[in-house]
Amino acid sequence: MMNVFVFDIETIPDVATGRRLYDVADLPDKDVANVMFHYRRQEANGNEFLRHYQHRIVAISAVLRSGDSFKVWSLGQPDSPEEELIRRFFDGIERYGPTLVTWNGGGFDLPVLHYRALLHGIPSPRYWDTGSEDPAFKWNNYLNRFHYRHTDLMDVISGYQARAVAPLDDIAVMLGLPGKMGMSGADVWDRYQAGDIEHIRNYCETDVLNTYLVYLRFELIRGQLSHADYDAELARVRAELSQSDKPHLQQFLQHWQP
Fold this sequence. Notes:
Layout: E1 4-13, H1 15-22, H2 29-43, E2 55-66, E3 69-74, H3 82-96, E4 99-102, H4 105-120, H5 125-128, E5 150-152, H6 153-157, H7 168-174, H8 188-193, H9 197-221, H10 227-242, H11 247-255
Parallel strand pairs: 1-4, 4-5
Antiparallel strand pairs: 1-2, 2-3
């Protein structure tokens, strides 16, 4: 298993865009966000989840499995600007060309990253290549939903059937994994306003751990890992988490059923 990069993003309302869209330049951030939620509820029959281009990224967390190494972390620092987080993400793709793994990344994380890269003018030729630069990318690139260079587990396991999709939390718990552990994406805006970016990053890291462990199970059922290899990968993750000095990773390990 070489260069597998599992990632997840956490977002808040992009109030700068909200001010431009709704002509509310004089309102504070919280009120601008409420205006954005209001218009979205009107547009989407009560659903206030904002459109992709109205999200701002405040955390990108990842699991990297490469060679003999396993790492879970959040890109940048808690006070890193959004542009730096996104640049680090795409720089990693340019440098290593990893297999990307997500849960609903095709439906949410990657479109948001596209819009934010567009906003900040962040290039990533390798990510956008569909064979014009590297012929190998014609049949296995990041943009085609049926290629494994980006594996959206939610899409693949549901057979690309909208009626069959499931939340990551439910599937993680079904497999004996910790799942959300007391926080969800709906809490991120409140946490951000309270200045608790570290908690958001920690939560995001547990989400990518859940996703990576579901991915290992997927690799087992599609024959890419033997049972012995699968057990060895689980043991590797447990060993790495047991050595971590991060309380949220220790808590994840404690809630992970054998």
